[in-house]
Amino acid sequence: MARGIPKDPELAVQEPDRRSLGTMEDKRNIQIIEWEHLDKKKFYVFGVAMTMMIRVSVYPFTLIRTRLQVQKGRSLYHGTFDAFVKILRAEGVTGLYRGFLVNTFTLISGQCYVTTYELTRKFVSDYSQSNTVKSLVAGGSASLVAQSITVPIDVVSQHLMMQRKGEKMGRFQVRGNLEGQGLIAFGQTKDIIRQILRADGLRGFYRGYVASLLTYIPNSAVWWPFYHFYAEQLSHLCPQECPHIVFQAISGPLAAATASILTNPMDVIRTRVQVEGKSSIILTFRQLMAEEGPWGLMKGLSARIISATPSTIVIVVGYESLKKLSLRPELVDSRHW
């Protein structure tokens, strides 16, 4: 099975590592499709289509998480469900998808993540056979490349997420009708970009870059050992006849939830740095602790887990089908499912 983890679990594709699947292969004779077995053209085309479908389903919760993390205390929303209902009533379904068109450009970073991860892992394997070492180095390198592409897109899309009727949430306010669609929607994006350039210059598009790296590199690295741990435990607990896809589908969300809990404090700080125009991670942390205490570091956690759970399940379950479709033609007959 080829390996790779998506954003964000909000930015790329997550998948079980070789060592954990190697154990499962011994028990159930699972045939593993390696990176070199894939038709890369099919893999990228089908992968983008699958990722796009996942983004459409989880984007509303990404928007909700961002608003929860930026708001002061509980001034606007009292939780994930409350925010969902209020946004839906006040702004309609389109309100849950503000900034979505801009955010779709992160599909590029997702594919860059997978490619960097695979190539780095292959390179590291020449020096170490430890799966942990390969996963940590490859995951960190892939996150570095992906975030370099993702951060400018995130900055713009997050400011668009903050556009709402009534009280201003972010630094910038789009002029004109927030209910507009089509050309007006693209006009809002251009307006935000111009305001960022006037206020901060080109550096403004990389505001929170360090905070993003401190959030997503650990998230990418932490996911691997926890996925291995959960998959290993479930493989021993499940009956012999239990399909391996069942405990894979369970292990993915468990690992994603664990990684989210561990990295959410940095994610809150990252969001505030990018949306509120903060210049210091330390000062942002101190201000957050002074205003809201330790619980402020957990803001938006439930929305983050909710958005990560379905995407992880779909990816773990759907990735096998994606790879079967992407298998090189000359190898199709040699694989038995």
UniProtKB/TrEMBL annotation:
Molecular function (Gene Ontology), one example: branched-chain amino acid transmembrane transporter activity
Annotated family: Belongs to the mitochondrial carrier (TC 2.A.29) family.
Keyword Transmembrane helix among UniProt keywords: yes
InterPro entries recorded: MCP, MCP_dom_sf, MCP_transmembrane, SLC25A44
Location of the protein in the cell: Mitochondrion membrane
PROSITE patterns: SOLCAR (PS50920)
GO CC annotations, alphabetized: mitochondrial membrane
Role noted for this protein: Mitochondrial solute transporter which transports branched-chain amino acid (BCAA; valine, leucine and isoleucine) into mitochondria in brown adipose tissue (BAT). BAT is involved in BCAA catabolism and actively utilizes BCAA in the mitochondria for thermogenesis.
GO biological process: amino acid transport; branched-chain amino acid catabolic process; regulation of cold-induced thermogenesis
Membrane topology of this protein: Multi-pass membrane protein
Name under which the protein is recorded: Solute carrier family 25 member 44
Keyword annotations from UniProtKB, A to Z: Amino-acid transport, Membrane, Mitochondrion, Repeat, Transmembrane, Transmembrane helix, Transport
Catalytic activity: L-leucine(in) = L-leucine(out); L-valine(in) = L-valine(out)
Start and stop residues of the Solcar repeats: 41-123, 130-233, 243-325
